Amino acid sequence: MPNSKSAEKRLRQNAVRRERNRAVKSAVKTQVKKVVSAIRDGNVELAETEYRAAAKQLDRAGAHRVIHKNAAARKKSRLQKLIKAAK
């Protein structure tokens, strides 16, 4: 339990930020899964369009420090590698 007013406020802020970060991470994971499933189904055109959306979400999550910038770049690189292999 927080002992000061500022600690109470930090607790509230952390709760809001944790929920927001969880939502962003979940959306990113869902978009990445859409890309991978499109590749597995053999639909390269759909995979490329889904990749654009995934790259945008990964870049935004990395910029806002929800995930590390290098982790976002690594995921983008691996998805691009899968798409090129599918072609």
Model description:
Helix content is 85%, strand content 0%. By secondary structure, it is mainly α. The chain has one domain: Methane Monooxygenase Hydroxylase, Chain G, domain 1 (Up-down Bundle), CATH 1.20.58. The longest helix is centred in the N-terminal third of the chain and has 36 residues. The N and C termini lie far apart (56 Å).
CATH topology tier name: Methane Monooxygenase Hydroxylase, Chain G, domain 1
Radius of gyration: 17 Å
How helical, in percent, are the residues?
over 70%
Number of helices: 3
Q: Note the main sheet.
A: none
The whole-number mean of residue pLDDT values reads 96
Give me the secondary-structure topology.
Layout: H1 5-40, H2 44-63, H3 69-86
Helix pairs in contact: 1-2, 1-3, 2-3
Descriptive tags:
single chain; 87 residues; mainly alpha; Methane Monooxygenase Hydroxylase, Chain G, domain 1; 3 helices; 85% helix; elongated
